[in-house]
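Q: For a teaching handout, I want to show students what a protein-ligand complex looks like in token form. Below are the inputs, and the small molecule is zinc ion. Please produce the holo structure.
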Amino acid sequence: MPPVIDLIPCLRDNYAVLVHDPASGTTLLVDAPEEAPVAAALRRRGWTLTHILITHHHHDHVTGLMALKDETGALVLGPAEEADRIAGLDRTLEDGDVVEIGPWTVDAIRTPGHTLGHLCYHLPSIGLAFTGDTLFALGCGRVFEGTLDAMWGSLDRLKTVLPPETIIYCGHEYTLSNARFAVSMDPGNTALQARATTIAAAREAGRPTLPTTMADELATNPFLRADDPALATAVGMAGAAPAAVFAHLRRRKDAA
Ligand SMILES: [Zn+2]
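A: Here is the structure, written as tokens, with zinc ion included.
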């Protein structure tokens, strides 16, 4: 039975995601930006929260954690490397850990860069991945704790690990501004132009731009395409190493 997914806008531009398995009743929350919208979604759906997965320690991903845990008794899992900065973790996960959550197998993928211990989560049996603040729709997270080289390595790893058909949820609704930046860097990319139009229409109508897919990101996300000679040429860096192209893009976006 396919899962039922509820994408919940929180705070100014964050998302929490609920994944529910109707057969077992398993209900997984990925990140807890705040308590009230998640609790309201659980009530509306009639679901009981059983598990919480945390991608990284930033406050806009964990502020609702303790209240939701207290209300529901959900088991909380998150990055071992950030356990000292995330209150309420019941189980810590490291790169390569595989954990059973209800009917699903969850693979933990360490993606340093935005934070040092950031984990992405892949649920291969249902073709779903949660990329937190590492990979965004048409963008990537700011590099706060790791190096630009490490962040490129993290994105490159996601390209290797996640099949193109993977459905991806990330931590923020940044897609419209990401699209504007992507088009400015990669103006000759027709797939990107078409996607930017669709995204603008979705935001105009107040709809989320998530989920995305790995295939769409591979075709249109400049940060994932730092190793594509066409993109290197588009930004005036033909022949440069992918990590150097990535660093250039990230610095330009930081200054945008
Ligand atoms: Zn963050």
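A: Two things your students might notice: The mean pLDDT is 97. The chain has nine helices and 14 strands.
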